[in-house]
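Quick entry, no commentary yet.
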Amino acid sequence: MKLFFGEIHHETAILNEEESHHFAKVLRGNEGDLVHVTDGKGNLAEVEITSISKKAVEGKVVDLKVNFEQKNYYLHVAIAPTKTMERLEFFLEKATEIGIDEITFLQTFHSERKNIKIERIEKIVQSATKQSLKAYLPKVNDLTKFNEFIKQDFEGFTKCIAHCEADIERTPLRTVLENNPQKILIMIGPEGDFSRDEIFAAEDHNFTGISLGHQRFRTETAALQAVFAVDWGLK
């Protein structure tokens, strides 16, 4: 059964404009069809389509699951965009499938990319959410300067910065996860890693330096390794 984004009320659901067009014009759906609808906030409804118009597709809620497959943790990954967008898009797709709650893009000293197309990224995340039948749509934040990001108030978060500087103290991520943090933020740097000044600045703002293992990863691989580790360690 296909999944669509829309508004879910007590007994009815309405697909958003783009999803309505896809259902009616691309899939050529009909009244009486059964579909899944999510609001991206944890609600997942089984819906029987009752009305198809040019502006909206509406239906009757047959079954509603609240907080569908809600995780017991909140994961926020802040990542420096890769030079090749295909690699970044691969991370976005797979991280969404595994389970991630929020993504921020960082502009760092060694960043290879200074701009991103946020609308395209949101579509990739939405598509991955639908393909993996998830009811929570990850929040996507636009490109943010590193020094501005670390100054934000991440109340209740265990804050981590993954880096490769062997002479600067690092804690294995698995050790951090042993404390069962409910909310965790992990920063992943560009191919040239975070600068030493950035690492020290992050530590001054209560970020813990972490390692992801003995191997040296590319940016998107390191980010996926972190997502896998958190999912395995906290689920």
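second:
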Amino acid sequence: EELYQQLISMRQDVHGAAIELDVLRETCQADTKAYDGLKDSFHELLFNGAHERCKIFPQILQNREECSSSDYIFGKVIASRVSQSVVEAVRHWDGKQAVVKIWKKSSFRTFRQMSRIHNELRTLKKLQHRDTIPLIPLMNVWETHEDLYVAYECFGKDLYHTLERYSKTPDSLIRQVTTPLIDALSYIHSHNIAHCDLKPENIMVRTNDDESISSVKLVDFELAVEVGDDHTLPKEPRGSKG
């Protein structure tokens, strides 16, 4: 009841509520389900309409950089859904090709949805501390009043669509993918990160002129988890449905 009253009093302060809930999580580790249930039960209170009045979102915008849409030239729409679109783009100042994910802020209805995006940004920040990395680098993060933009380096196409042209996957192609994929997983595991959503759609490949695969990188770390020193993983199921 006391916590309920505290959250009610903070209904106009999304950032403050998020901080309070983070504190709550630290004190409720023994009962994660109860924490998640309580957190989501207040999502309407915290986000229904609040996103229209609050420009800065908690957690996610800790990763914000000084960048804006004017720094990019936007091109073809790769994918489009109600809550998210993916667009090809080129960054003005260096001509680097990018893929930009654009989330509508009005689609964020629970902390769980926001935490997935925050989790990916935090994980990429932790992993991309060297020039050559086996994952798609994060380029920029910025926001408008309505949308959140995350720009990634453009890199080849996913393994799922690469394999579509084959009725049977050639052994040579399997060998070309397997070794760099193991290297990529070894790299993230060496930083105590488990991907938890490994599938052909999240494995990006770059091909040579003869269609052989030259390099492999991982993408989509929304469900990734940091593994403790005891190497235990969260008990709740993770990964894509279907």
